[in-house]
Amino acid sequence: MNEIMKIVEGINGILWNYILLILLIGVGVYLTIRLKFPQFSRVLPALKGMLSDIKNKKQCEKGTMTPFQSLATAIAAQVGTGNIVGVATAIASGGPGAAFWMILSAFFGMSTIFGEAVLAQIYREVKHGKLVGGPAYYIKNGLKSKFLSTFFAIVCIMAMGIIGIMVQSNSVVNSLHESFHLNMTVISVILIVLVGAILSGGMNRIGAFTEKVVPFMALLYIVGALIIVISHITALPTAIKMIFIGAFEPKAISGGVLGIGLKETIRFGLARGLFSNEAGMGSTPHSHAVAKTNHPAEQGFIAMIGVFIATFIICLSTVMINLTSGSYDYSISAAEMTKDATLMTQIGFSTTFGKFGGGFLSIALTFFSLTTIVGWYFFALSNVKLLCGKKRIISKSFKFIVLIFLGLGPIVEPDLIWLLADMFMGLMALPNIIAIIFLSNKIIYVLKDYDQCVKNGDIKWTYEYQKKE
Fold it and tell me: For residues 95 and 263, is the Cβ–Cβ distance under 8 A?
């Protein structure tokens, strides 16, 4: 077992510390320049339009999602333990300055996810009477590579539908057991029943579930973070100062006691930012593909909102909780701080809310993990449908396979499944990035077409690739 873990750790080190770091940031910068910095001009109008749809209670056809439901499902997958535990680990390992680079990665990631959503919209298909799409589909239909499409589909099913599901159930069961001393078997059974009930309702029930739970839990977490920051408001100026100083001169903090250099700060900040918002990873396009919208660019703008919420709001909330509450200790080295990184955010809540704080965070993690399980199942199922074609029995039975691994998650060695999850998600990103680069001209064309439609006063997409089975 130790040998397997060493091999997987070696692969992850190469993937996340070098290859993916360069490729994901590179494609984000490239698209940002070619799209003329859409982060500044496109997000607020998209947010306004989405809020209007929510107010008017826009409905969707069976087998599709509204733009807001697709966004909620995407955020359900993006917001999880990585935004809470992962972010705490990033600032513990890379210092406060890692938060600056994390935000920077999200800024460029907004352009990347715009491209993913656009491609998912225009190369989606109709299978079994329902819309379906994602990287495997735009690799197959746009890039015309059956090999890369199949490779992505297989790796995605493993990363999200098998290993990822086990990671989340492991986190949920252990968190509730430690916080409330609940029986782990009982928790596992309840989790399986609950998830099974949600998944049995298909796409429409998944969309209805995520659009209700995700905003509620995100808002509750943000409010909790604001209360903590306000309670320690005198520490806020120092926290902000340390983020900017640490981003460029980490050795200047606490006289160099952190024991980290600029390279480590940048690496941990960028890598954690990319991992938390999943821009370029190839996960969230699955939900954006099934949204019914007038033009692919509109869904691209909405996808950008997801990255903004996941990193600029949720992740930054976690950063400020730890830096203002005192759970991050500037006088301790990064090596020592990293050992207790998983408890940092919990300590931050406990300093303000007492025993209730630890319990609240455990419940928040549970709901975030639950929505992630639902989102990841939906993403994996899209790829099962691509591999199975017309064999509906296989795609229908996939949910039972997921529920089995959901039950196995809590009894498997957590370190191993976390390492495997990192590896498969890293492998998943590679063919997706290749597709984004080679199909970038199509992304640019879609944005130009949208702007022309706006000038003409008729926002309508005239071409749509939809293969029906």
Answer: no
Q: Name residues whose C-beta falls within 8 Å of residue 246's C-beta, 6 or more positions apart in sequence.
A: 95, 96, 97, 98, 100, 252, 253, 265
- Rounded to whole angstroms, the Cα distance separating 233 from 259 reads 28
Bridge partners of 123, per DSSP, are none
Query: Which residue reads 């975030």 in tokens?
Result: 368
- Residue 402's contacts (CB-CB under 8 Å, 6 or more residues apart) are 161, 162, 165, 195, 199, 377, 380
The pTM (predicted TM-score) of the whole model is 0.87
* Angle, CA 336 vertex, CA 331 and CA 340 arms, to 5°: 105
DSSP 8-state symbol, 125: E
**DSSP element (H, E) containing 89:** helix 87-94
The model's pLDDT over 342-374, given as tens digits with 9 standing for 90+, comes to 678 878 888 888 878 878 887 887 888 788 888
Query: What's the CA gap between 335 and 329, in Å, rounded?
Result: 12
CA dihedral defined by 184, 186, 188, 189, rounded to 10 degrees? 170
Angle at 45 between CA 64 and CA 378, to 5 degrees: 25
Q: How many helices (H) and strands (E) does the chain have?
A: 24, 2
- Let me know: does 61 contact 292? Beta carbons within 8 Å: yes
Q: Which residues contact 99 (CB under 8 A, 6 or more apart)?
A: 87, 90, 91, 243, 247, 269, 316, 319, 323
Tens of pLDDT, residue by residue over 1-60, are 677 888 888 888 888 778 888 898 899 999 999 999 999 888 888 777 777 766 666 666
Residue of 87, 21, 88, 95 whose CA lies nearest to 249? 95
Please give the DSSP secondary-structure letter assigned to residue 334: H
Q: In angstroms, rounded to a whole number, what is the distance separating the alpha carbons of residues 338 and 344?
A: 9
